[in-house]
What we know:
- It contains four helices and no strands.
- By secondary structure, the chain is mostly helical.
- Helix 1 packs antiparallel against helix 4, helix 2 runs antiparallel to helix 3 and helix 3 runs antiparallel to helix 4.
- The model has no long low-confidence stretch (mean pLDDT 93).
Amino acid sequence: METLRHIVLFVHLIGFAVLFGAWAVQAFGGKREFTRLMSVGMAIAAVAGLALAAPWGLSYELNYVKIGVKLVLLLVIGALLGIGTARQKRGAAVPPVMFWLVGILTAANAAIAAIWR
Length: 117
């Protein structure tokens, strides 16, 4: 069971890497727009993260406050991506604050995962 949990954790990290990597390419490439790959990475990280939040019959307690904070951040990132993508489809540009907030919140979500025990 622990091996399966580690595989799901690996998939979760891949989702984060896809989201943050796609964002970084746009941020430092000069376009600063949301891509489909960002949404795919967020979806992978979300599904795997929710699977990790389930009790796996582990001998230790899950930190539900940490899980809740990460879930709220995920929802905010998803909302920003959705709103920005809809604006792009209408021909409007993504506001710089919205674009940078996605990167900052994604990095913050990873920092919470790594630092908060």
